[in-house]
Write a structure and sequence with these properties.
40% of the residues lie in helices and 25% in strands. The chain is built from 6 helices and 10 strands. A hairpin with a 2-residue loop joins β7 and β8. It is elongated. The two termini are 16 Å apart.
Length: 286
C-alpha cells in the first residue's frame, strides 16, 4: 500500500537513499565491526594480521575471604590455565590440603577457545570480499549480518553458559590427573568460565557403604552440584558432602562481552535500516 501511494519523485529519492545505504553506509558499519572485533580478538590474544606475539601470563587470587574453605592462585595464559596452586581446608577434620598443577601439565579452557574461534569466524565473514566490492541488494546484507550475528551470539553464549556436566564426567575428566600430589578419591574439582569470571568448584565426597539404607538416586548434569548429590564411579557410590565455589574476575573477558554486545547492536541497527525500505519495495528482494 505504501508503494502504491508513493509518488514517482518520492520513489526516486528513496532509490537514491537506498543506493547510498548499500554503497556507503554498509561499508562504514562493516569497518566499524572489523575494528571492534579486532579489539575483541586482541583480548583473546588472537594473532591478527599474521602478527603473533607471546601471550602474557596473568595471576588471579581465589578465596580472599577468611571464611573461604578454598584459597589459591591461578595463572592464566590466553585460553590455558598453566598453573594452579590450591589450598583446601577439609570440613571433617580441618586438615589443610595443598595441590598444584604438575609442571608438564596445563588445562585448556574450552569455553575461551570456542569463543575465540567464533570471533575469528565473524572477522573472516566481514573481511572475506574484495575491498571494492559493492552490495547489490539489501537481502545480501541481511544474510551477511545474520551470519555475523550467529557467530557473535555463539561466542557470547560460550562465556555466559558453562557446560552442564554429570559428576561421573567430572570424576573421569583429565583435570583430576593434573595435580601433584594426586587428588584424593573423595575430592573432585572443576574449572569453568561464567560471564567475566573464572570459577573453581571443589566437591568433597562421602563414600556410600554397600549396605547403606539411603535411597540412591544418581544426579544428572548440572553446572553446579549441591550437597546430597549422588553418583557412581566404577563400583563405588558417592554422595557430595560439601561444595566450595570460589571465583575471580578476568577483566579482559568483561571487555570481550561488551564488544560482543556493541557489535550485535550495530548489526541489528543496520538490519533495521534495510528492513525499513522493504515496506516500500515489498515486491522486490530489496
Amino acid at each position: 500500500m505504501a508503494a502504491a501511494m508513493a509518488s514517482a519523485a518520492e520513489r526516486a529519492v528513496l532509490e537514491e537513499e537506498f543506493k547510498w545505504l548499500l554503497q556507503e553506509e554498509v561499508h562504514g558499519v562493516l569497518r566499524q565491526l572489523q575494528d571492534i572485533l579486532k579489539e575483541a580478538s586482541h583480548r583473546f590474544a588472537l594473532p591478527v594480521g599474521g602478527t603473533e606475539g607471546p601471550v602474557k601470563q596473568e595471576n588471579f587470587m581465589l578465596g580472599t575471604s577468611s571464611a573461604d574453605q578454598v584459597k589459591g592462585v591461578l595463572m592464566l595464559q590466553g585460553d590455558a590455565l598453566c598453573q594452579a596452586d590450591i589450598n583446601l581446608k577439609m570440613h571433617r577434620n580441618n586438615q589443610l590440603l595443598h595441590f598444584t598443577f604438575r609442571e608438564d601439565k596445563q588445562w585448556k579452557l574450552q569455553q575461551i577457545q570456542d569463543a575465540r574461534n567464533h570471533v575469528n569466524q565473524a572477522i573472516y565473514l566481514l573481511t572475506n570480499r574484495d575491498v571494492n566490492y559493492q552490495f547489490k541488494t539489501g537481502s545480501e546484507v541481511l544474510k551477511l549480518m545474520d551470519a555475523v550475528m550467529l557467530q557473535l551470539t555463539r561466542a557470547r553464549n560460550r562465556l555466559t553458559t558453562p557446560a552442564t556436566l554429570t559428576l561421573p564426567e567430572i570424576a573421569s575428566s583429565g583435570l583430576t590427573k593434573m595435580f601433584t600430589p594426586a587428588l584424593p578419591s573423595d575430592i573432585l574439582v572443576n574449572f569453568y568460565i561464567n560471564l567475566n569470571k573464572l570459577c573453581l568448584t571443589v566437591y568433597q565426597l562421602h563414600a556410600l557403604q554397600p549396605n547403606s539404607t539411603k535411597n540412591f538416586r544418581p544426579t544428572g548434569g548440572s553446572i553446579l552440584h549441591n550437597p546430597g548429590a549422588m553418583f557412581e564411579c566404577g563400583s563405588q557410590r558417592y554422595e557430595v558432602s560439601h561444595v566450595h565455589k570460589v571465583e575471580c574476575v578476568v577483566p579482559w573477558l568483561n571487555d570481550a562481552l561488551v564488544f560482543f554486545t556493541v557489535s550485535l547492536q550495530l548489526c541489528q541497527q543496520l538490519k533495521d535500516k534495510i528492513s525499513v525500505f522493504s515496506s516500500y519495495w515489498n515486491y522486490r528482494p530489496y
